[in-house]
Structure formats: structure tokens, C-alpha cells
Amino acid sequence: LLDAVISETLRKYPTDSRLERQASDDVVLSAGSDRSNIKIAKGVVIKIPIYAIHYNPDYFPDPFAFKPDRFLPQNRHNIKPYTYLPFGSGPRKCIGMRFALLEAKLAMVKMLQRFRFYRVPDTDVPLVFLRGFDRLYAKRLVVGVTKR
């Protein structure tokens, strides 16, 4: 369940809003059922909009809701390939992905073992975000914390 919660958090709040890849060769892509083609010349930089893909209801129904169940083992097969991209995908995906996920899980478990977090009157629900150059930032995050 912790893996599902972290995966859904990374879907809703990706660490980067887009990926960039440069075409190493000329390529022609088939663009859907109408059989139109897209030509990409060698050297062209392609920007892949992670945030837009993660919030596309065709890929993630009810995209604004926090639903970790989408990432449970029995539901993971419903996620279309290359639509969940918090670390990229394919041969150029982040080489530190497994380490980053392990660190996040360890940090989460250690914090939850030692502290209890709860909503206080100043907690923004939903969170208010500011748009940075290439990512979102929480305007503020106010929660209550007590030692267990």
C-alpha cells in the first residue's frame, strides 16, 4: 500500500512537469487512427508534458482525485505504458529511480513510526500551489505534528 501511495503522489505531483528528448535520427510517427504521419527530423528536441499526461482522464480516470488504488498490483495492468512518467520511461529513464523510491519509503515509514500528523485549522485543504519555472510548489504546508 505504501508503494501505491507514493506512486499516486508522484502521479499527482511529478517532480518535473516535462521531459525533453532529442531525436537521434529522422523518424516518422503514425499519429492515430486517421493514419496521418508526423515527421521528426534528426536533432529536433521533443518536449513530453508529464503533468498533462498524468492528468489526462483518458489515462487516469478522475485525475484530480487522490486514488492510490490505481497502483495496487491488481490494478496496475490498467495503466497504459508510457503514461506514468515520474522518472521517465524506456532506456533513458532515471537510473536513480529505485534508490529514490526506497529512500522515500524509508523516510515515510520512519516519520510515521515516530510522529502523528493531523490537520489543524490553518491547513489548506486542498493545498494551494504556486507555479514555478518547470514545476509546482506548495504555497505553504501547515499540519500538526505530535510525537508518538
Task: Summarize the structure in short.
The chain is of the alpha+beta class.
What characteristics describe this protein?
148 residues; alpha+beta; two-stranded antiparallel ribbon; 3 helices; iron ion binding; Cyt_P450_E_grp-IV
What's the topology here?
Elements: H1 2-12, E1 19-22, E2 27-30, E3 37-40, E4 45-48, H2 50-54, H3 97-114, E5 115-118, E6 129-131, E7 136-138, E8 144-147
Family: Belongs to the cytochrome P450 family.
Keywords: Endoplasmic reticulum, Heme, Iron, Membrane, Metal-binding, Microsome, Monooxygenase, Oxidoreductase
Pfam families: p450
Radius of gyration: 19 Å
Order of helices and strands: HEEEEHHEEEE
- Strand order in the largest sheet: 1-4
Structural class: alpha+beta
Strand percentage lies at: 15-25%
Described by the principal axes of the CA atoms, the overall outline is: elongated
Helix tally equals 3
Number of strand segments = 8
Percent range of helical residues = 10-25%
Biggest sheet descriptor: 2 strands, antiparallel
- Termini gap: 22 Å
- The overall pLDDT average reads 90
Overall structural domain count: 1
Notes on the structure:
- The protein is 23% helix and 20% strand.
- The protein is an alpha+beta fold and 148 residues long.
- The chain has one domain.
- The strands form 4 sheets. Strands 1-4 form a two-stranded antiparallel ribbon. A two-stranded antiparallel ribbon has the order 2-3. A two-stranded antiparallel sheet has the order 5-8.
- It is elongated.
- The model has no long low-confidence stretch (mean pLDDT 90).
- One of its GO terms (molecular function) is monooxygenase activity.
- Keywords: Endoplasmic reticulum, Heme, Iron, Membrane, Metal-binding, Microsome, Monooxygenase, Oxidoreductase.
- May be involved in the metabolism of insect hormones and in the breakdown of synthetic insecticides.
- InterPro entries: Cyt_P450, Cyt_P450_CS, Cyt_P450_E_grp-IV, Cyt_P450_sf, Insect_CytP450_Detox.
